[in-house]
Design goal:
about 210 residues; alpha/beta; Rossmann fold; 7-stranded mixed β-sheet; 7 helices; globular; binds glycinamide ribonucleotide
């Protein structure tokens, strides 16, 4: 375990329930981390309200930043200024640009509500449900410049039940997300996660 909390910056676009779970775990001393900044790709993202309520600084980027191509340099600079060591995407529905990866090489992680490489994109739960798979799940991975791609850190399977609706499946997927993301962040804070030269992730004290 390192001596000081892991400093993370969180990127959101929407409701921020995963962000809330991370905030709660930190408050409960169950995660040795500090959220130094929450950045949103939408000024109206409810995740920003959750951050403000927890006293976390926020950066709200509207469409004009993205249209002008200034969002990624702005994010990279603000996260570095805030002292973030890792960037944690929690429902961030934008592709991360090269400026951010230059500032955070192999230090951006993402959560996706399906078992990647299956069902990438913005509708992972619905797409898996529509495909009729019997098992789907949640993936946490290092992000790269392709949406929902990059070395996999951890996955959890979620069975699709006979009587599932997309809503009931979504509920179990989210419950699984709220377990796996804090688990990965705990391992990260403990220095247990390494990315090998073969681009495979090794998790010490894993499962
Ligand atoms: C989560 O289910 C996350 O896995 C998903 O967005 C949701 C955000 O919910 N991300 C993706 O689909 C990325 N491709 P939240 O804002 O309530 O945490």
């Amino acid at each position: 375990m390192s001596d000081s909390p892991l400093k993370i910056g969180v990127l959101v676009s929407g409701g921020g329930t995963n962000l809330q779970k991370i905030i709660d775990e930190i408050a409960a001393d169950a995660l040795d981390a500090e959220i130094v900044l929450v950045a949103s790709s939408r000024p109206d993202a409810f995740g920003l309200e959750r951050a403000k309520k927890a006293g976390i600084p926020v950066l709200a980027l509207g469409r004009s930043y993205y249209d002008a191509g200034t969002a990624d340099p702005t994010i990279a600079r603000a996260m570095q200024d805030a002292g973030a060591e890792y960037l944690v995407m929690a429902g961030y529905m934008r592709l991360i640009g090269p400026e951010v990866f230059a500032a955070y090489p192999d230090r951006v992680i993402n959560i996706h509500p399906a078992l990647l490489p299956s069902f990438p994109g913005a509708h992972g739960i619905q797409d898996a449900f529509d495909a009729g798979v019997k098992v789907t799940g949640v993936t946490v991975h290092f992000a790269n410049e392709v949406y929902d791609e990059g070395p996999i850190i951890a996955q959890r399977a979620v069975s699709v039940r006979e009587d599932d609706t997309v809503e009931s499946l979504e509920e179990r997927i989210h419950a699984t997300e709220y377990e796996i993301y804090p688990w990965v962040l705990r391992r990260l804070a403990a220095g247990d996660i390494t990315l090998g030269a073969d681009r495979r992730v090794h998790v010490a004290n894993g499962e």
